[in-house]
TrEMBL record:
Organism annotation: Parnassius mnemosyne
Every FLYWCH-type domain range: 16-77
Protein name per UniProt: FLYWCH-type domain-containing protein
Keyword annotations from UniProtKB, A to Z: Metal-binding, Zinc, Zinc-finger
Gene3D superfamilies listed in its UniProt record: 2.20.25.240
Keyword Zinc appears in the UniProt entry: yes
């Protein structure tokens, strides 16, 4: 059974959030993803499902800026609706990468920590 899917030039709007540990995440079609790696100065990114380690979910998304250019593999678990709802209730959902990072940087500076996205730890929540 092949679980592979690929959609190029997806026009679905991405939403961005920040994990409890401060890593950038995206919300797309009721699932959450975290940054796996970046290229071209951070403009191009590959995002893994937040359940990659815990449930071995193979789903990932590639973006260029704030646009999805590739999605591959089906998720091996239910939607992340409860986690997404918690983020929405805490006003932690943003419409762009820049907005999410600016909020993150402001929070880190307020807490006395310096924030650089390259030294942020991955976390699934």
């Amino acid at each position: 059974m092949d679980l592979s899917i690929q959609i190029v030039s997806d026009t679905t709007a991405l939403q961005f959030t920040v994990s409890n540990r401060g890593s950038l995440q995206i919300i797309l079609n009721r699932y959450m993803y975290l940054t796996h790696h970046k290229a071209h100065g951070g403009r191009k990114r590959r995002w893994r499902c937040i359940d990659y380690r815990r449930l071995h979910c193979p789903a990932f998304v590639d973006t260029d800026g704030d646009s999805v250019v590739k999605r591959k593999y089906m998720h091996s678990h239910p939607f992340h609706d409860i986690k997404i709802l918690k983020k929405i209730q805490r006003n932690l959902v943003y419409s762009s990468t820049a907005k999410a990072l600016s909020i993150l940087n402001a929070t880190q500076k307020h807490d006395g920590n310096t924030c650089n996205e390259d030294n942020i730890m991955d976390e699934s929540d």
